[in-house]
Amino acid sequence: MWPLRTAVKGANSKTWVAWRHREAQGEQAQALRSWDLTTGTERRSGKGPCGSTAPGRAREKAPRQLGALTDPTEKASPSQAPGAERCEGGKAQAPGADRPSADSGSESGPHALDQAQDGIPRPLSCGGSWVAILSTSQEESRTIRAIRTPAGVKYEFCATKTESVGMVDRQGDPFLAFHINKGLVRKYMNSLLIGELSPEQPSVEPSKNMELTYEFRELRAAVGRMGLMRTNHLFFLLHLLHILLLDGAAWLTLHILGTSLLPFLLCAVLLSVVQAQAGWLQHDFGHLSVFGTSTMNHLLHHFVIGHLKGAPASWWNHMHFQHHAKPNCFRKDPDINMHPLFFALGKVLSVELGKQKKKYMPYNHQHRYFFLIGPPALLPLYFQWYIFYFVIQRKKWVDLAWMLTFYLRLFLTYVPLLGLRGFLGLFFIVRFLESNWFVWVTQMNHIPMHIDHDRNVDWVSTQLQATCNVEQSFFNDWFSGHLNFQIEHHLFPTMPRHNYHKAAPLVRSLCAKHGIEYQSKPLLSAFADIVHSLKESGQLWLDAYLHQ
Fold it and tell me: Where would you find the membrane-spanning parts of this chain (predicted)?
């Protein structure tokens, strides 16, 4: 991140600077103080901690010098919460304010203005964690807002209304990608606003591909004008109906044909299809790609993932949006957390692990034991139990209630037909079959691709280097829940999946123009590439472990 510079070059280049305060008891008292830097006019609306102003309707006050941010007699409460600004020597200081300012080469955070002895405004580091996003919905806008992240808060995306995925990139592309109602989200973020970047600063960090970023923003605008973000509700209704019909057919199979081995296995297969297809449908609601409001999407998300699958929506949000923000970035994408405990993933990380002489597993055989601890085990041996720990540990009681309706429905439906032992056997066979389906589909798009530490590249490059597609066909679309268009899904996560194939030629052209490989392969080749990549990275680990 760059520092928030506040150079003023005339009456038209207004920059507002604000400080955010938090009381020890919570975040409800958020006080702001800001100045119009072109006039030195302070706008305020009531005293807050450290002499700052509380939220409310701003009113003009007589101009004053910018140096005296607070009354020297005002002092901070010793019980201020972590992340609150400190008042020292009559001057409000944010966490990290004792770090060097931008004038000394620091780029540790945004900068407020202090008044030097010669009367010239100069940067003063606010320090702490901060992020910058686009401040308007117009993608061509170069207005950037800096937002303070509460101290100690890891941005586990969408955990709350203010903890937004969009607040992780300077250019704001994740913000534009993940929110369908950006105006509403900005209302919640206003209390965190600390300033705006000067007009002369670029909206993309120089370490990133500016040309690709700007052209992708134009592409995103074109996609919107083409109507590709609009939903065909009939598509999702039919998809839900086919899930419910298969669910009913599974019960009728046992009810009509009896509980012998063949009807039992047929029922298990039908229920596995139900679970897999419900998994793809909840994915649509979770990404807010079905309805125009978050409320309706969240409600149906709870119904599908909670009542039809027995999993918590909050757990899915917690895990999945981290994956989308930084796919295949070690320690930022939870989908690759099996490195290094179970697998050595990616060429870079595998060699790094070998050089460090670390061996948690015989990684040179991982392409073999993947068939034992990967597809068959992930859901029945891990997810099935972890989701209950997650909701109880985090007190997600609404999610737990939705989950219990699934287990209660399944229990009342099948125990009278199969007995308790037969029901448990059916349940874990279904989870076993679903787990194989789920793992092969979800890993074919990412495991064979580039896996590394976060290198802070631009949003588009981050997505493209970590994802690949699988060729389109009616079966592939249905079998993978349209995740065979993984590239388009990662670039446009709120796009309804029935429009991915329309956006694909546009994305392919953008990749060709910038010399970026757009990978699309047959389904079976994609499955095989998972194993091949594990074999390759395992061998790289072994070579580094033995010889480097």
Answer: 260-281, 369-391, 411-433
Determine the Cα–Cα distance for residues 400 and 383; give it in Å rounded to an integer: 15
Tell me the pairing of strands 469-470 and 193-196. unpaired
**β-bridge pairing 469-470 and 520-521:** parallel
70 DSSP 8-state letter: S
Q: Is the dihedral angle over the CA atoms 339, 344, 345, 348 positive or is it negative? A: positive
Q: Which contiguous run of DSSP H or E holds residue 524? A: helix 523-547
- Angle of helix 313-325 relative to helix 384-393, nearest 10 degrees? 100
Q: How far, rounded to the nearest angstrom, does the alpha carbon of residue 172 sit from its chain's CA centroid?
A: 13
- The answer to whether residues 231 and 499 touch, using CB atoms and an 8 Å cutoff, is no
Token output for 174: 């994740």
Q: Residue 188: what pLDDT?
A: 77
490: nearest Cα among 317, 316, 320: 320
311 in Cβ contact with 379 (< 8 Å): no
Give the number of other Cβ atoms within 10 Å of residue 94's Cβ.
Answer: 26
Q: Where are the beta strands (DSSP E) in 126-257?
A: 130-134, 144-148, 193-196
Residue 143 CB partners (closer than 8 Å, separation 6+): 134, 135, 136, 196, 197, 199
Pairing assessment for the beta strands 34-36 and 41-44 based on DSSP bridges: antiparallel
Spatial separation of the C-alpha atoms in residues 77 and 71, rounded to whole Å: 15
Ranges of H-type helices in 331-447 = 347-355, 366-373, 384-393, 397-443
Residue 336 is given by DSSP the state G
Parts of the chain with a pLDDT under 70 = 1-171, 194-207
Structure tokens at 308: 């039809």
DSSP code string of 265-311: HHHHHHHHHHHHHHHHHHHHHHTT-SSSSHHHHHHHHIIIIIIIT--
pLDDT in tens, 381-395: 999 999 999 999 999
**Do residues 445 and 323 make contact, with C-beta atoms less than 8 angstroms apart?**
no
3-class DSSP assignment, residue 356: coil
User: Helix 233-257 and helix 261-286: axis angle, to 10°?
Assistant: 160
Cβ atoms of 64 and 39 closer than 8 Å:
no
Cα–Cα–Cα angle for 122, 127, 132, rounded to 5 degrees: 90
CA dihedral 279, 281, 285, 290 (to 10 degrees): 170
Residue with tokens 């679970």: 275
- Residues 403 and 198: their CA atoms lie apart, in Å, by 49
Contact (CB, 8 A) for 355 and 371: no
Residues 516 and 47: their CA atoms lie apart, in Å, by 54
